[in-house]
Amino acid sequence: MTSDSAGVVGLVLTSQALRGLGYGVAAVQLGVILRLDGLTSGEVGLMLAAVLVGTLVSSLALARWGDRVGRRRAYAALYGALVCSGTVIALGAPPWLLAVVAMSGALSVEVIESGPFTTLEQVMLASTGRPRRELVRGFGLYNAVAAGAGTAGALLGALPADRRLLGGVLATVGTAGLVLATRLPAGVEVPAVLPGLPRTRMLARSRGPVARLAGLFAVDSLAGGFVVQAYIGYWLSLRYGATTQTIGVTFAALGVLQTASLLAAPVVATRVGLLRTMVFTHLPANLLLAALPFAPGLPGAIVLLMARACLSQMDVPTRQAYVMALVPEEERTAAAAVTNTARYLTRPAGPALAGLILPFGLALPFVIAGVAKTAYDLTLWRIFRSVRLPAEQRSP
């Protein structure tokens, strides 16, 4: 690995750690702050949906113009938006203004997000030129850093809910991210097209497989939208009267388990393959998710969440590596943006619908999510089990 490549990896991992810290605080406190502000369950769901809509819009913009604007410029712009979002939260702005900044694309309702930041970082890591096995390990470490930092963020979020704390952390993370963005080397940008050569259309060679993956990811993301981490924190406080201290410690423990599973995912993928790891670790996690609302009390619910955390995120690094391995290098930005955008095309409907249907049954959001995610896994396996990755076709 060249020194520039090593520098890119270091900067991306540092950036991921900072955001994981901020998003860990947000996952614990955001829903509780909104509830303390007097918002109903439906309004909380709509506010969280606004965050996801912003992620969708910014991801679509990256898919269309990201490489033309420049990856470093787009990266810096996102961190600037995070500074603005944190400032608005800290100042106690009215809900309508909070909804506006929520749509900037810089916020997240989960520690490990799949939005515009991830799109850019996913391509930056793939641009280092490492072999596929090392790339899978890199994505495992990348997501494990987020989970580990999110653990620290969840512990910080265990303090009494305070918008100045949450907003201050997010603004500080955004400022630090701006500094890191200025230190990225030119090598992270897409290779320039030689004069006189036409630009190829987006996803010219891999449109079919990417479109199928995007459709499946959209289904999985819609289901996941019913149970985003910020919503689970809200649900625990509503269903069991859990305090931010309890939620924060629980999310911290979940972060430790997720970190371990993310580091283990590349090892499993090396033995059984990327697709098998994606599907067969996700299926039992879905059953645990559907069982969560039937726990007899808060301790039982926490045990189910911990069991699910051991498996539910193992598909994340393998999914990212799978997409990067499936498409040619010149189409990676578009493929990452399209597949990540697909996850947010339907995701905003999840928390909004969960908030609306919650009065009809506390179990409904979790059962719907578990069933839909199981259908996604089975369909993904059926469609792609016979597809060989280009790297597999070139090597024994």
How would a crystallographer describe the biggest sheet?
none
Element order: H for helix, E for strand: HHHHHHHHHHHHHHHHH
Would you tell me which CATH topology applies? Growth Hormone, Chain: A
Architecture per CATH nomenclature, i.e. the level-2 architecture: Up-down Bundle
The secondary-structure class comes to mainly alpha
Q: Write down the CATH class.
A: Mainly Alpha
Percentage of residues assigned to helices? over 70%
In percent, how much strand structure appears in the residues? under 5%
InterPro entries: MFS (IPR011701), MFS_trans_sf (IPR036259)
Keywords: Membrane, Transmembrane, Transmembrane helix
Transmembrane segments: 44-62, 74-91, 139-159, 165-188, 209-232, 252-274, 286-307, 352-372
GO molecular function: transmembrane transporter activity
